[in-house]
Amino acid sequence: MDKKNLFKMIPKVDDILDDDRINKLQDQIPRKLLVDSIREEIDALRKDIRDNTMDEEEVIRRNQILVDLILKRAEKKNAYKLRRVVNGTGVIIHTNLGRSLIDRQVMEHVFDVAINYSNLEFDLDKGERGSRYSHLKDIITEITGAEDAMVVNNNAAAVMLVLSTMAKDREVIVSIGELIEIGGSFRIPEVMEQSGATLKAVGTTNKTHLHDYERAINENTAGLMKVHTSNYRILGFTSSVSIDELFTLKEKYNLPLIEDLGSGVLVDLSKFGLEYEPTVQDSIKKGVDVVTFSGDKLLGGPQAGIIVGKKEYIDKMKKNPLTRAFRVDKFTIAALEATLSLYLDEQAAIERIPTLNMISMSLDELNYKAQRLYDGLINSIKDNSCSFKIVDDYSEVGGGSLPLERIPTKAIKISLDGVSINQFEKALREYDIPIISRIYKDNIFIDLRTVREDEFQIIIDGIQFGLNRLKGCI
Ligand SMILES: *Cc1c(COP(=O)(O)O)cnc(C)c1O
């Protein structure tokens, strides 16, 4: 058959719109998306005919599945672009996968605040205008022991606000070894510059001494700053100046001491066999004037930047115009308050805050989970080209926290015969609920630490989907 006749076999848009299955979807998917999908599939078919890749039989076959292809395309168009995935990587605070998870009950509180009016900026006692920052102050000061607290959009904003308020047009002394970059776009020196403060970097990459700081102090010095180098370590011949030592300088020269802690640890993680990470409480106890940290790293709450410290400084920050630009919305406040209230009972915090729960998960529990997932896989997936094994592996905290820490875990290793492991990994990512896994030496690993039991069926179905997809390609 010549091309002209093949083109005639292509159905008309209006005819496809009348198809029962397409018609039924008109309630669920906007008509425009359906029409776009029909046009795109027809164009693709037309292109294939034009490029001489199809004969009559193939056009007939394509026409038979045309509605399926259109529905799939329309559903993809209609799906949210930001959506849930399964994190099989074992990286708990995964920067690319949304960092910390939030407890369901915490989210119920957010839901309640979001679908109803709230006292966001209303003082219920006085019946007059209130402050959105008031809701969090008591709980944060209670937990951290600080005099005062405020919250902005993220920790980068917190650092910027602190420096802009306390050191604009003046100098802040920081160790060269602490001039770090976080996540590519946040560099301490650049943030400092943007804030209007001048960075006075002292010491060398591996060693900074107290006298380096002391020598840099002059009449234009606005403060001493310490940055917790949470995402890397310098090993070997090193020395840095501790907060205790800096405190002596602070006292001697009457300068404020500022600390960017990054992770915002509120419980001592060494209890779970992890390396000791300085807690916010420690910094406050040691006399740091202002401490900043993230809400969605080790704290395990929503994205936020928390500033705690002396009231005189926090009061000034509230008046800084940047505060309006960095202000948190009501969802953040609701989620943060509900997360922080779990910290009033440390056991509750560890059980209910997903980040802490995953960090503290025991090998027994991981083993049990691995066995359950393994059984599910063996029972459901009957495919000789695919085998599963429970293996020892390591998880990571992630989020630039505890970079050297490798936490022993259990993983499912998936080995495949005769199919490309990279294609299989891609197929898992293309499942309805994408499954993000890790490839190591031609096998796929799914770490049990970062997957919940209620995700097991998704993983099983996703693996089946991936196998079917690859079989279809071969
Ligand atoms: C992560 C981090 C930041 C940035 O925090 P965000 O909440 O991602 O803005 C700043 N400083 C340190 C030390 C960090 O670890």
Topology:
Elements: H1 3-8, H2 13-17, H3 20-25, H4 31-50, H5 56-78, E1 86-87, E2 91-93, H6 104-115, E3 122-123, E4 128-129, H7 134-144, E5 148-152, H8 155-167, E6 171-175, E7 181-182, E8 186-187, H9 188-195, E9 198-202, H10 210-216, E10 221-227, H11 243-253, E11 257-262, H12 280-285, E12 290-294, E13 305-309, H13 311-319, H14 322-325, H15 330-342, H16 346-352, H17 354-360, H18 363-380, E14 386-398, E15 407-416, H19 421-429, E16 435-436, E17 438-440, E18 443-447, H20 456-473
Helix pairs in contact: 4-5, 6-15, 7-15, 8-9, 8-13, 16-17, 18-20, 19-20
Bound molecules: pyridoxal-5'-phosphate.
What structural keywords apply?
3 domains, alpha/beta, Aspartate Aminotransferase, domain 1, 18% strand, 474 residues, Aspartate Aminotransferase, domain 2, 45% helix, seven-stranded mixed sheet, binds pyridoxal-5'-phosphate, 20 helices
Explain this structure.
The protein has 474 residues and is α/β, with parallel strands linked by helices. It folds into 3 domains: 3-78, no CATH class; 86-95 and 359-470, Aspartate Aminotransferase, domain 1 (Alpha-Beta Complex), CATH 3.90.1150.180; 104-344, Type I PLP-dependent aspartate aminotransferase-like (Major domain) (Aspartate Aminotransferase, domain 2). Helix content is 45%, strand content 18%. The chain has helices at 3-8, 13-17, 20-25, 31-50, 56-78, 104-115, 134-144, 155-167, 188-195, 210-216, 243-253, 280-285, 311-319, 322-325, 330-342, 346-352, 354-360, 363-380, 421-429, 456-473; strands at residues 86-87, 91-93, 122-123, 128-129, 148-152, 171-175, 181-182, 186-187, 198-202, 221-227, 257-262, 290-294, 305-309, 386-398, 407-416, 435-436, 438-440, 443-447. It starts with a helix and ends with a helix. The mean pLDDT is 92. The structure holds pyridoxal-5'-phosphate.
